[in-house]
Amino acid sequence: QVQLVESGGGLVQAGGSLRLSCAASGRTFSSYAMGWFRQAPGKEREFVAAISRSGSNTYYVDSVKGRFTISRDNAKNTVYLQMNSLKPEDTAVYYCAARGPPSPSSSYYTAAREYEYWGQGTQVTVSS
Question: SS3 breakdown of the chain: % helix, strand, coil, rounded to 5?
Fold first, then answer.
């Protein structure tokens, strides 16, 4: 089992940047494919970005491509979401998620149902 703790959210003006971090407990972080999701008020949770166990493959929802970058440091048990050129429509609670083994080292996952573990979320607010 793994526990996830997000940090790095906050209030930023449109065009600004934030970097979210998600620290995972346990010694098998490299066994987990990771993802970021977000949920805006009154909306369903949506996929944002995913990264494979090895970090070799990543995938993004179209609305954040070219602006957001997901990465991971398996030595630090941490996954990151670098968010640049933020827009008011990026305002949401951001969650990181982990999918346990087994999974191919190069696979990533985009559906919430494919993830077993979730963090508590961190609020990102982008003002216009």
Answer: 10, 45, 45
Q: Report yes or no: 1 and 116 within 8 Å, Cβ to Cβ.
A: no
What's the pLDDT tens digit per position in 39-88?
999 999 999 999 999 999 999 999 999 999 999 999 999 999 999 999 99
Dihedral angle, C-alpha 10, 94, 39, 97, nearest 10 °? -170
Whole-number Cα distances in Å, 51 to 38, 91, 119: 16, 22, 16
Q: What is the DSSP letter of 43?
A: S
Closest CA to 76 of 114, 17, 34, 15: 34
Q: Which residue has the tokens 């979210």?
A: 20
